[in-house]
Write the structure tokens for this entry.
Amino acid sequence: MNMKNSFARFLTAGIFCLAGLAQAQVEYVDPTIGGLGFMLEPTRPTVSLPNSMVRVYPVRRDQLDDQIHSFPLTIVSHRMGELFWLMPSDGSAEAWNRAQAYDQETTTPYYYATRFDDSLIRTEFTPTARCGYFRFTFPAGKPVVLLANRRGGELTAVSNNAISGSERITGEGAMSPGVMHAYVYGEFSAPVKIEAGSSGNGNRLTVAAQNPDEKILEFRYGISFISVAQAKKNLTEEIPGWNFDKIKNAAKDRWNDALGKIQVKGGSPEQKHVFYTSLYRCYERMVNITEDGQYYSAFDHQVHQDARPFYVDNWLWDTYRALEPLQTLLNPEMEADKLQSFVRMYEQSGWMPTFAVLWGNHECMTGNPIAPWVADVWAKGITNFDVATAYAGIRKNSVEGTWLPWRRGPKTSLDDFFAAHGYMPALHPDEKETVARVHPFERRQAVSVTLAQSYDDWCTAQLARDLGNHSDYDFFLKRAADYKNVFRQDKGHVWPKDADGNWVEPYDPGWSGGIGGRDYTTENNGYTYDWDVQHDLAGLFDLMGGRAQAEAKLDQLFRAGLGRSKYEFWSKFPDASGLVGQFSMGNEPSFHIPYLYNYLGAPWKTQKRVRMLLDTWFTDTSLGIPGDEDGGGMTAFVVFSMMGLYPVTPGVPIYDLASPVFDRVTVKLPNGKTFSIVCRDNSKNNKYIQSVKLNGRSQSRVWIRHADVVQGGTLELQMGDTPNKELGTRPEDLPPSTMTLNPQTLETATP
């Protein structure tokens, strides 16, 4: 399947070239990229509008599964299951229990089509924001469509061509208990006969055209989280007539508008496929669930009126690092609306969420990642949200809430110890857990939790200072140094420490901690977390013995052996995919690490390393994403890095430079200005920056301010095949990263 898709893309690109036409950005997108997971979850070929409520894909195991089990009418939240069940059928009795083999598949962000092998039924789909539109072609006539809900609820016929119903959605988070519902109202393009039956916890409908000679049967529907009546209204407003191609073309235009905010020249067709597919992934979430000026919130189970849109579905541990900074650059107004949505969630539930999914806050991952997101947006001049209330929620999470992994809510005895001693205490190997609220699988993750708290509290300190709360600033800035409590200088690694202040022994940074290292770290081993001090890299390098020693240590990270077979390593660390030495490209805590050479005075190594990582691990194939993509969490790294920029420390409004893949990148800013990155003599071999000019003025540093970008202008890079080992090496040219840095001025205060 993938070879056929690649050939089709090549042929299409050739046709456009021959015609002398520019290929639209959306035509470079291939949603099947990453459809096979290296170890964990594959990507799904999601069809939707950017940041919109209705998201659809064929339900199957992965891209190699040659059977489709069903189509949802929408999904719950990213990678969290589907809502409702639909399949065209030949009317056979076993159709309800049979997956169907398929072929002739077409997948784009705005349109999906396939043909089933046995029946030759063709299925097509295209979306609007809150609605979907299926078109079924039955070569042999006798059109039948099967509909069901599987989670509880009701489906019923309301006329000779319309159905309505609901499906239950239950949440797992302690901060948002309760049940919500998804509602549907749908219409068929011809009169139908509808037969009801049972389906597990729900029910099902067998829908057959009254005229058995019908060859085409269309189904348009609206989704709502408020009511069936609202679902019908959504449908009436967004798909008022029967014109599939009109809706399809409108969806295509929406995607070209979104993807066209970044335009590239140069590079190979394959690189453009990777780039624009990655950018498409960055628009899967958050999703706007506002309907007609109102929304249902699972955070208090009420319907609210609001002039601003309400967004859900953000796994902040994954997204604060690159996805949200990218959207802050491209769509700052939407970022403000998303943050205001989190403010509403805090007001409604009493806690600031960290994993705000459709059904409430999911108790997932570690830290207080709302803090770096808010600090980053604020430092970049986006103020159109209630920052004071956002800060109150962030502060409550940090001071009154638990830091235990995969737990939210009030403090535990471990949090009291943490507050008093500045680190999460670890257990020794085979020591039994004594605190009941510790997750039995996720464990304490003692080292990475300490590191997360340090960075998140540093971000909280910056907000406190800007809001005039100097006592809070001093309090959180002091806690931001807690990372030093788990760095063992005689070993040169972060290291777990027990409640008595003793280093845990035995401990192997590459192997200890159980599955995913979870006794001490989060999904990755200690080699990754050695570098997880984004807010005080200067302090971290001092602990390592200085810049020279830290550079040598970073070199070794990419060269170190696993000390055991790959299958043995991955049986314990399945998230650590995309390996280069002990570096894991396939998981979020590693994203900033290749850029740290910029802070060590060796930026040419960042340029070399980032190009290698992009070329090796991000390709236009079904295996083209090295780890869990997490709905833009990883592919935002690709977008930034292929442009030659990266936000190493969200909360500090600068971008580090690497080696752009394209000859020219033009960002169309929302203020009407453009920012261009021009690479002279760029090629696969000419990957090293020789000189830097910003708006015609030479500079010796390899980083730029966010303000430089949003003011518009041109960054000009002269490229060559030999590293310029003098560029960006002077102490005054290093990117700023110290504990006492003021992000607003980029100046470091004397402690």
